[in-house]
Amino acid sequence: MSRSRIALQRLCLAAVFAALVFVATAYLPRIPTLNGYVHLGDTFVFLCASLLPLPYAIAASAIGGCLADLLTGYPMWAAASLLIKGATAFCFTVKGKKMLSLRNILGIPFAAVICVGGYYIWAALFISGSWIAPLAELLPNLMQSVISGIFYILLALVFDKTSPLHALRQRNAK
Questions:
Q1: Closest CA to 157 of 111, 88, 105
Q2: Which of 37, 38, 80, 40 is nearest to 62 (CA)?
């Protein structure tokens, strides 16, 4: 397969993942919190970063998260989501025989630290202007990371057992 064809395939898959992150963040069942909501979008950020090379995963994750904030009434979080969801992609890898590798499992708590810490800092600096008020969002943000991590593990098990997806992953690891 030619390099341009592989790049086009990766770009298309990144666009699909950006849409999945957007839909899972904005429209799948979500739990409102004081300044935002708990959602399943991070599940698809984790999956994307486990299926695509890093530049594609960063773009898809950042764009999907940012669009969800912009189009659902939370524009004050859009820039934070752009940065945080993009950074979260660094916690996972496409390399390795299986998606559910030790590296990717250990990526979940690191992704939680980036998400919880990133949104806390953003809220303190740009939303509330206080380091105390955003403390109320720490538990919901942690809950979001844990729930997304559980769904990621379940879906990764399915992906590892499905040959076409396994073959796609192996091709993207090169």
A1: 105
A2: 80
The candidate with the shortest Cα–Cα distance to 74, out of 26, 122, 24, 133, is: 26
The pTM of this model reads 0.92
In terms of pLDDT, which residue wins out, 130 or 161? 130
Count Cα neighbours of 64 within 13 Å in the Cβ-side half-sphere. Answer: 35
Question: How high is the pLDDT of residue 38?
Answer: 84
**DSSP track, 124-146:** IIIISS-SSGGGGGHHHHHHHHH
Give the Å distances, CA to CA, from 141 to 45, 112, 116, 156. Answer: 15, 8, 5, 22
- Displacement of CA 116 from its chain's centroid (Å): 13
Q: What is the per-residue pLDDT for 1?
A: 74
What is the rounded distance in angstroms from the CA atom of residue 47 to the CA atom of residue 18?
Answer: 11
3-class SS of residue 123 = helix
